[in-house]
Structure formats: C-alpha cells, structure tokens
Amino acid sequence: MLLAAAALLLAGCVTAPPVAPPAPPPAAAAAPSSLPARYEPIAWTALPGWSADRVADAWPAFRAGCGPLVDNLATRPVWQAPCAAAATIDGRDAAAVRGFFEVQFNPYRVLAADGTDTGTITGYYEPKLVGSRVKTARFGVPLYAAPDDLLTIDLAALHPDLKDRRLRGRLDGKRVVPYWSRADIERGAAPVGDKALVFVADPVEAFFLQIQGSGRVELPDGSVMRVGYADQNGHPFRSIGRVLIDRGELTLAQASMQGIKAWGVRNPDQLPALLDENPSYVFFREVAASAPGTLEAAIDGPIGTLGVPLLRERTMAVDVRSIPLGAPVYLATTLPLSSQPLERLVLAQDTGGAIRGAVRGDFFWGFGDEAGRQAGRMKQDGRLFLLWPKGAPLP
C-alpha cells in the first residue's frame, strides 16, 4: 500500500493556479502525430456508473466555469452554445441536469498515444494553518509573495512547439540565470525580505502548503486569510519523502505528511537540510473572499487555473495538453486504498506541476484535515472520459 506518501510526497502534486489564469487552449483539430491523447467515441451507457452518479452535484462547478470559457475569445466558439443552454436549466432538477449533458455533449474515452486507457489518479486538498500577519515568537516561518526580480519567460513566444512551457529566472548583469533555489531563499540570498504575506509556526506545514498550492491561515483575531499560488522559482520538485525512503530513514508506509512531521520532531537539526533537498519554492498571494450570495461564494473553494473556485469532490487538475481546461470529465477510479468505485462527473478546472499525461488526474477532496487524509492516501488506477460539446472539433 502506498498510504499518504503516494500522491502528496512521491508524486509531488503541486496543483497551483497562476495569478492571472492563462487563456485555455482553443479547441482545434491537430495532426494525429502531435496529439498527446486519443479520443474514442463511446455510448453514454458505457460510462461506468453514469446512471447512478448524482450528476447535479457537479452543476455549480460547470456553471461557474462557463464565465471564463465564454469570455475567452479562443474558447467561446466551443462553449457558447452549451453554456447558453445551461442558463435555461434548473440545477435543482437532477433529471434536467443529466439530460442537459446527454443532449449537449458526446462522451469519449481518453487514451494515451500508445492506446492505454488507464492512468494514475491522485488527490489534493486545501489545508488550514494558524499564523500571524506579523512575525512573533510563535509564528516565524514566512509565506512569501512573488519577488520583484523573478522573471517568467514564455517559450511559446520563441517557438509555437513550446506552448505551455515557461522558464523562471533572474537577471545577473545582462544574463538570465536560474532563480534562487529553496536553500538560497531560506538563507536570505533572494530579495524577499519585505515580501512576507503571513507567518506560520511550522516549517513542515509551510512546506506542504507549497505542495498543495493554496490554503487558509487562521489569524490571532479569529479571522481567516486565504492564500493561493502566485508563482514558483522554476526549480523542479523533489520529494523529501523519497529522500527519506532512499536513506532508509522511513519506509514507504511511513513517508506520509504525518510521518515526515514526526521525523522532523525527532531530528530538528536535520530538518532544514531535508526541506532544502527540494529546490522548488512556491510564492503566494492573498486571495479575496468571493462576494456574498454569489455562486463562487457558495462553492467556497480555492481558485483553480480556470480562475473559478474549485468544488470539493467535483473538480480535478489535469494535463491541459490532453484534457481542455474547463471541460467536463467523467472519472472512473476507486477510493483511496480501496477497491470501492469512485465514479462521477467532475470539471477539469485546475492544473498541476506533477500532473502530466493523457490519463492523469488530481482529484480535489476539499478543505480540512479529513480531506487531507483522503488526498494523502490517494494513488489509484483510473480512467478518464472527456465530455465534449456536440459539433465542436475535438481538441
């Protein structure tokens, strides 16, 4: 069994939306040789568990996603008709919602280029920490905003084949060099000293918050500050759980978030060096609360890459080279450490640094400790089925 190490620590599921969500890729036909995925048309009856799923539970996520999809000139031709039709549907009518999807969409089995239809499904969640906007004796671990000297280079501007590829760096004279690593930032080499948004107590919890990409911080007055991904230093993620396993200090079953925290308590002098084994570093931004009474406020999740809040247990991070951002996807997998089916409609509204591959997903479990337990234990085999608007060219 892979326990909590699997999804969170070994795979490094950084599911982090950018500050300004990028335009979703336009739906357009592509040469077969360039497709990272294949799409096989199937009947609705071939979707495992479709008739039993509470499809209407995903309706708020679909309706929230229509806004950015229709507002974007590149995606508007694909989504304008189904989103206009959705405005006429009563989301409380389960039969009407199911009928909407069956009328407006066609289902497709997602296959890797080699024909494989099974891949890995992991999980993530929104953690809660306690902290302070000012540094105190208790709260001394900073969460930084993006530094002013961090450069982001969009490689698509240099060559179309490099779309969705970006480099981070900084200027050293007239040269662009890699940005500072985690170890450099922690020892004060990077100019981030005045960029602290908030301070928390536990460096391991701050570390895992960077892996999740968003979270909530309860402040001393009882108010809650929401933080979300702003940027990243450009260095690759390295699992500290894997480091401890390779050293023989933890077994695979022990390398959970809880196991690593316990290791840190036993080895406080070695903890900073362990965290520095992962050179990747995530910067945050404060996220304003959604306006009361809005659909976004009712969903009450962190903001995903599409720019809308993520709905617990009904949204997922995907590889947008294979699954278009914002699309409905039917997920067929199993519950963590179980053979019990987890089959349901979700919305592909997020992305992640470790989410790569045609049949690859990161299931959003929601907020809090129980969601964290489920997410940390999840590394299951699964299949994905793309629901694509009728009449639109396949992605």
Q: Mind telling me which CATH architecture of the largest domain this is?
A: Beta Barrel
Total individual domains: 2
What is the C-level CATH assignment of the largest domain?
Mainly Beta
| Main beta-sheet annotation | 6 strands, mixed, barrel
The overall pLDDT average reads: 88
Strand order, largest beta sheet = 3-16-13-15-14-17
Q: Could you state the CATH homologous superfamily of the largest domain?
A: RlpA-like domain
**Apparent shape:** globular
Q: What is the fold-level CATH name, i.e. the topology of the largest domain?
A: Barwin-like endoglucanases
Structural class: alpha+beta
Looking at how many chains there are and whether they match, the oligomeric state comes to: single chain
Q: What is the β-strand count?
A: 17
Question: CA-to-CA gap between the ends?
Answer: 36 Å
Low-confidence stretches: 1-34
Radius of gyration: 21 Å
